Amino acid sequence: MSVSVCAETHKAKIMGQSFAASEELRQMVQEREPLWVFDVDRSFEVLNFLEYNRRFSSLDPTLEEMIRVITMGGGPAELPNFNESGCRHVQPCESEASREIGIVSSNPISLVNMLMDVVSFYDP
Protein backbone atom coordinates (compact mmCIF):
# COMPACT_ATOMS: atom_id res chain seq x y z
CA MET A 1 0.00 0.00 0.00
CA SER A 2 1.49 3.32 -1.02
CA VAL A 3 1.00 6.47 1.02
CA SER A 4 1.11 9.93 -0.50
CA VAL A 5 3.51 12.45 1.03
CA CYS A 6 0.69 15.01 0.98
CA ALA A 7 -2.00 12.62 2.20
CA GLU A 8 -3.20 14.93 4.96
CA THR A 9 -3.44 17.88 2.57
CA HIS A 10 -5.45 15.85 0.07
CA LYS A 11 -7.59 14.41 2.85
CA ALA A 12 -8.47 17.89 4.10
CA LYS A 13 -9.39 19.05 0.57
CA ILE A 14 -11.51 15.96 -0.04
CA MET A 15 -13.27 16.38 3.30
CA GLY A 16 -13.93 20.06 2.53
CA GLN A 17 -15.36 19.26 -0.90
CA SER A 18 -17.46 16.45 0.56
CA PHE A 19 -18.89 18.72 3.22
CA ALA A 20 -19.65 21.46 0.68
CA ALA A 21 -21.35 18.97 -1.66
CA SER A 22 -23.46 17.46 1.12
CA GLU A 23 -24.50 20.94 2.28
CA GLU A 24 -25.46 21.90 -1.29
CA LEU A 25 -27.49 18.69 -1.61
CA ARG A 26 -29.21 19.35 1.72
CA GLN A 27 -30.19 22.86 0.62
CA MET A 28 -31.41 21.62 -2.77
CA VAL A 29 -33.59 18.95 -1.16
CA GLN A 30 -35.25 21.45 1.18
CA GLU A 31 -35.83 24.22 -1.38
CA ARG A 32 -38.89 24.72 -3.52
CA GLU A 33 -39.56 27.53 -6.01
CA PRO A 34 -37.72 29.30 -7.54
CA LEU A 35 -34.99 26.60 -7.42
CA TRP A 36 -37.42 23.85 -8.42
CA VAL A 37 -40.31 24.51 -10.79
CA PHE A 38 -43.12 22.16 -11.72
CA ASP A 39 -43.04 21.08 -15.37
CA VAL A 40 -46.66 20.56 -16.37
CA ASP A 41 -45.72 18.64 -19.55
CA ARG A 42 -43.63 16.07 -17.67
CA SER A 43 -45.59 16.15 -14.36
CA PHE A 44 -42.59 16.56 -12.06
CA GLU A 45 -40.26 19.22 -10.72
CA VAL A 46 -37.23 20.32 -12.72
CA LEU A 47 -34.24 22.34 -11.66
CA ASN A 48 -34.18 26.02 -12.59
CA PHE A 49 -30.54 26.18 -13.75
CA LEU A 50 -30.39 29.97 -13.70
CA GLU A 51 -31.44 29.99 -10.03
CA TYR A 52 -29.11 27.07 -9.26
CA ASN A 53 -26.13 28.90 -10.74
CA ARG A 54 -27.07 32.07 -8.90
CA ARG A 55 -27.09 30.25 -5.55
CA PHE A 56 -24.44 27.57 -5.83
CA SER A 57 -21.97 28.37 -8.60
CA SER A 58 -19.24 30.93 -8.43
CA LEU A 59 -19.68 32.63 -11.78
CA ASP A 60 -17.12 34.73 -13.52
CA PRO A 61 -17.96 38.46 -13.56
CA THR A 62 -18.70 38.44 -17.30
CA LEU A 63 -21.41 35.81 -16.96
CA GLU A 64 -22.84 37.50 -13.89
CA GLU A 65 -23.09 40.76 -15.85
CA MET A 66 -24.88 38.98 -18.72
CA ILE A 67 -27.37 37.44 -16.31
CA ARG A 68 -27.96 40.82 -14.66
CA VAL A 69 -28.63 42.53 -18.01
CA ILE A 70 -30.99 39.77 -19.17
CA THR A 71 -32.96 39.56 -15.93
CA MET A 72 -33.31 43.37 -15.81
CA GLY A 73 -35.00 43.26 -19.22
CA GLY A 74 -32.04 44.34 -21.31
CA GLY A 75 -31.84 43.36 -24.94
CA PRO A 76 -28.97 42.04 -27.08
CA ALA A 77 -27.83 45.59 -27.87
CA GLU A 78 -27.02 46.12 -24.19
CA LEU A 79 -24.83 43.01 -23.90
CA PRO A 80 -21.08 43.67 -24.05
CA ASN A 81 -19.10 42.43 -27.06
CA PHE A 82 -17.12 39.51 -25.62
CA ASN A 83 -15.26 38.76 -28.86
CA GLU A 84 -13.15 41.90 -28.46
CA SER A 85 -11.97 40.80 -25.01
CA GLY A 86 -10.60 37.53 -26.34
CA CYS A 87 -13.20 35.23 -24.76
CA ARG A 88 -13.33 31.77 -26.23
CA HIS A 89 -16.57 30.21 -27.35
CA VAL A 90 -17.35 27.31 -25.05
CA GLN A 91 -19.83 24.72 -26.21
CA PRO A 92 -22.43 24.29 -23.46
CA CYS A 93 -22.93 20.81 -22.12
CA GLU A 94 -26.37 19.30 -21.95
CA SER A 95 -27.64 18.53 -18.49
CA GLU A 96 -30.94 17.79 -16.85
CA ALA A 97 -32.09 17.65 -13.25
CA SER A 98 -35.41 16.61 -11.79
CA ARG A 99 -36.64 15.34 -8.48
CA GLU A 100 -39.30 13.11 -7.06
CA ILE A 101 -40.17 12.86 -3.40
CA GLY A 102 -40.57 9.42 -1.85
CA ILE A 103 -39.20 6.93 0.66
CA VAL A 104 -36.16 4.80 -0.20
CA SER A 105 -35.56 1.61 1.78
CA SER A 106 -31.78 1.37 1.70
CA ASN A 107 -28.77 2.13 3.83
CA PRO A 108 -26.84 5.33 2.99
CA ILE A 109 -23.80 3.58 1.49
CA SER A 110 -25.89 1.40 -0.84
CA LEU A 111 -27.89 4.44 -1.89
CA VAL A 112 -24.73 6.41 -2.77
CA ASN A 113 -23.30 3.42 -4.66
CA MET A 114 -26.55 3.08 -6.60
CA LEU A 115 -26.55 6.77 -7.55
CA MET A 116 -22.90 6.69 -8.62
CA ASP A 117 -23.21 3.51 -10.74
CA VAL A 118 -23.40 5.08 -14.20
CA VAL A 119 -23.12 1.76 -16.07
CA SER A 120 -26.19 0.20 -14.44
CA PHE A 121 -28.11 3.47 -14.70
CA TYR A 122 -27.82 3.60 -18.50
CA ASP A 123 -28.25 -0.14 -19.19
CA PRO A 124 -31.81 -0.98 -20.26
Automatic annotation (TrEMBL):
Top-level taxon of origin: Eukaryota
InterPro entries per UniProt: HD-Zip_IV (IPR042160)
PANTHER family found in the cross-reference section: HOMEOBOX-LEUCINE ZIPPER PROTEIN MERISTEM L1, HOMEOBOX-LEUCINE ZIPPER PROTEIN PROTODERMAL FACTOR 2-LIKE
Stated name of the protein: Homeobox-leucine zipper protein PROTODERMAL FACTOR 2-like
Organism name: Forsythia ovata
Classification of source organism: Eukaryota, Viridiplantae, Streptophyta, Embryophyta, Tracheophyta
